[in-house]
Design goal:
This protein is α+β, with helices and mostly antiparallel strands and about 400 residues long. The protein has ten helices and 26 strands. Strands 6, 7, 8, 13, 14, 16, 17 and 22 form an eight-stranded mixed sheet that branches. Strands 4-3-2-1-5 form a five-stranded antiparallel sheet. The longest helix has 15 residues.
Length: about 400
């Protein structure tokens, strides 16, 4: 599809994408849509009257988050996407007002795209769960008895989710070395990344009303990259019996652009076969997974980055529809803007594992960086960058980057 706006080759933000985000303009967060190296300012478009015929309350674009727009519903999302696609492929009103409605993306300061009320993290990659099971429980079955029957998850801390580019402070807490008689307090020595993706809830429910697996995707607005930073030494000491706590809640990073489900539609793929068969409320038809290429890179302070993992979202054992159906089967309600993370995404070999604890085999096999340094876990000054994109039949839909730097 041709467009009058310049889009660099292999740009994540093609005309087939049109993701939503929040950026700073005139010292105020504004809603925008990414296209190539540019941002369409939706607030400016609204003031110029460009959306007058679309049949929804455009005052939602005066908000400093996208929640109000998302709450307008699926029909509005589709109408705006169709309108922008037409405007970008023909010299209409948007072209006429391009100097007022479009700014450069490359120097834009990005903001949190939504107000996240609640956050849930799942544990849905069978390779990751198996790898950690072997590390943590070497003398027993890696997968716990419930893992193949339910999408395991836990409720995380929404307040510490930050936008890409925000520094991450190395957390402190209790840990206990295997040879020690008692725990000690101090900075985490085994700070790790978790390669994840997350989806933003686009439709609220009432308490007591489950979401069926057939309708689950109607409640999803779009997806982001998610890095759920993890302090493995703190986590190992605290996680029994109630699971992650201080080892997780010190920070998680999201990418700034939300790629819509409509943009991801061409990249659906088959899911992994689930054995044994799941219970009826988790059974689905059709392709519920997505072919999304993933990459993790580490750059030491002042140094060149090294790619340490190349994976794919299609390796997920439990899909998003199953996660949401299970999350609400007990009547738990969800709200627009809630975030649901996939859990670490690991492929089938060491080059595609989604965490450093897996790649380094629990710290036993250091990975070498391009400058000759080695890593088992993150050092202060390290910058982690996660990238994600889909590509098929000449169409590229990407998520940009999810970046964080470790500070003391």
């Amino acid at each position: 599809m041709n467009t009058w706006i310049h889009i660099p080759q292999n740009s994540d933000f093609s005309i087939h994408n049109l993701p939503y985000g929040m950026f700073m303009r005139d010292n105020i967060p504004r809603p925008g849509v990414a296209i190539g190296d540019s941002i369409i300012d939706l607030h400016a478009c609204c003031k110029l009257g460009l959306f007058a015929e679309l049949g929804f309350d455009t005052s939602v674009f005066e908000s400093t988050v996208l929640n109000e727009f998302i709450d307008c519903g699926k029909d509005v999302w589709s109408r705006l996407r169709e309108y922008l696609t037409v405007q970008l492929s023909s010299e209409g009103a948007l072209y006429e007002f391009r100097e007022k409605a479009i700014i450069t993306r490359l120097n834009a300061q990005m903001c949190m795209p939504v107000k996240i009320g609640d956050y849930t993290d799942f544990y849905s990659s069978i390779e990751h769960a198996t790898n950690l099971g072997k590390l943590f429980r070497p003398d027993s079955e890696p997968l716990l008895p419930n893992w193949r029957h339910i999408p395991v998850g836990y409720h995380g801390r929404a307040s510490s989710i930050v936008i890409s580019g925000t520094p991450i402070t190395r957390p402190s807490g209790q840990s206990k070395a295997p040879t020690a008689d008692a725990p000690s307090f101090g900075k985490s020595k085994r700070l790790d990344i978790e390669l994840e993706m997350a989806y933003i809830i686009g439709k609220s429910t009432q308490l007591g009303k489950p979401i069926s697996i057939e309708n689950a995707e109607d409640h999803i607005f779009g997806k982001v990259i998610f890095n759920d930073w993890s302090a493995r030494d703190i986590q190992a000491w605290e996680y029994v019996p109630l699971g992650p706590f201080l080892g997780k809640n010190f920070g998680s990073t999201i990418s700034p652009w939300i790629v819509t489900m409509e943009a991801l539609e061409p990249f659906r793929c088959e899911s992994i076969k689930q054995e044994p068969a799941v219970l009826p409320y988790l059974q689905f038809t059709g392709n519920k997974n997505f072919d999304i290429n993933l990459e993790v890179a580490i750059a030491p302070e002042g140094g060149e980055e090294t790619v340490i993992s190349e994976s794919n979202f299609k390796y997920m054992y439990w899909n998003m529809a199953q996660q949401l159906a299970h999350h609400t089967v007990n009547g738990c309600n969800i709200n627009v803007g809630d975030l649901m993370a996939s859990g670490t995404i690991s492929g089938r070999d060491q080059n595609s594992y989604g965490s450093m604890i897996e790649i380094s085999q629990g710290g036993k096999e250091p990975m070498q960086l391009k400058n000759g340094e080695t890593r088992t876990f993150l050092e202060d000054g390290d910058t982690v960058t996660i990238r994600a994109f889909c590509e098929k039949d000449g169409k590229r839909v990407g998520f940009g980057e999810c970046v964080g730097t470790i500070t003391p």
